[in-house]
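Long-time lurker, first post. I've been practising inverse folding by hand and with some scripts of my own, and I keep getting stuck on stretches where the structure tokens seem ambiguous. Below is the full token string for one chain I'm working on. Before anyone asks, I'm not after the true native sequence, just a reasonable design that respects the backbone. If someone could post their per-position residues I'd love to compare against what I wrote down in my notebook.
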């Protein structure tokens, strides 16, 4: 089988897997939240797969100084997935935009996507939507999803034409139920904007304030995730359990993998069939290993 060329993008990706995980105590007293299992994979695999689906191959993992060695042990240098990983420590959880400041020299004036390490997004059309966001020459792209409890998130409102009007962080009285998910795409001005963000009353740099810079200049694209999409923030016990149940249901009933970096790498042409078979073999006699071997033997890459 001839391997198709891999998707290429100049965009770099940041996977932010820091924080103390206090909402998941006592599970996170001795382990990073993003290393907890979501069904058959560590949580970090899901946002990692999302970045890779956008065609991104240069990825920085940011975590706490204590947890960073565990991420290196799990993920290695990225070659098993046909990507390159860089690792940086976040000394204290001072807000999402801090990630861009930590990665300043590595970004090297490149556009960048940022994924939060406890977010899972699933949709049939997701890859196409992500790749569209990754190649937009200017501005920023965020994704909005309807939720029952918008007061927990950054909330975006729209006018009658569907254009974003406002973004408010954790509003007491939300003007809509459209929450901004933990996935963001920015042009190469993101670092300049991040440096202009001031700490909020919570003492953190807020990603909503960063997004507002793009909104105010009219360059913020808000793509709404509709029916057929699932977004899960696995940062509390209930949503962590729901995320695991969701992945189990899709994989058991449809036989399709959710959140597997190895499968994404193969489908996009980052690795070939032999590399995927070798990865599947390392999974031993697990169901995940069986499904990966099946993909290697029966699926034609689309990259």
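-- Answer (accepted) --
I ran through it position by position. Result:
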């Amino acid at each position: 089988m001839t391997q198709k060329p891999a998707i290429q993008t100049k965009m770099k990706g940041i996977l932010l897997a820091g924080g103390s995980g206090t909402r998941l105590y006592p599970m996170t007293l001795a382990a990073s939240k993003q290393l907890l299992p979501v069904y058959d994979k560590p949580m970090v695999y899901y946002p990692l797969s999302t970045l890779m689906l956008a065609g991104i191959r240069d990825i920085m993992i940011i975590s706490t100084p204590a947890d960073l060695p565990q991420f290196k042990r799990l993920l290695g240098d990225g070659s098993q997935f046909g990507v390159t990983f860089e690792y940086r420590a976040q000394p204290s959880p001072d807000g999402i935009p801090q990630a861009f400041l930590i990665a300043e020299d590595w970004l090297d004036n490149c556009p960048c996507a940022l994924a939060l390490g406890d977010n899972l997004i699933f949709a049939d059309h997701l890859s196409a939507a992500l790749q569209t966001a990754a190649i937009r020459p200017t501005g920023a792209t965020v994704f909005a999803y309807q939720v029952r409890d918008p007061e927990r998130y950054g909330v975006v409102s729209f006018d009658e034409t569907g254009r974003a009007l406002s973004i408010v962080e954790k509003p007491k009285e939300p003007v809509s139920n459209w929450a901004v998910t933990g996935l963001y795409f920015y042009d190469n001005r993101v670092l300049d904007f991040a440096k202009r963000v001031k700490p909020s009353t919570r003492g953190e740099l807020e990603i909503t304030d960063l997004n507002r810079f793009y909104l105010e200049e009219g360059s913020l694209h808000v793509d709404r995730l509709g029916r057929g999409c699932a977004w899960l923030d696995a940062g509390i016990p209930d949503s962590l359990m729901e995320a695991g149940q969701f992945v189990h249901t899709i994989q058991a009933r449809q036989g399709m993998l959710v959140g597997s970096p190895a499968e994404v790498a193969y489908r996009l042409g980052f690795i070939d069939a032999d590399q995927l078979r070798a990865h599947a073999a390392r999974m031993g006699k697990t169901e995940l290993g069986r499904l990966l071997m099946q993909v290697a033997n029966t699926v034609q890459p689309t990259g």
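A couple of notes from the structure itself: The longest helix spans residues 237-254. Residues 12-143+180-259 form a domain with the Spore Coat Polysaccharide Biosynthesis Protein SpsA; Chain A fold (CATH 3.90.550.10). Happy to go over any region you disagree with.
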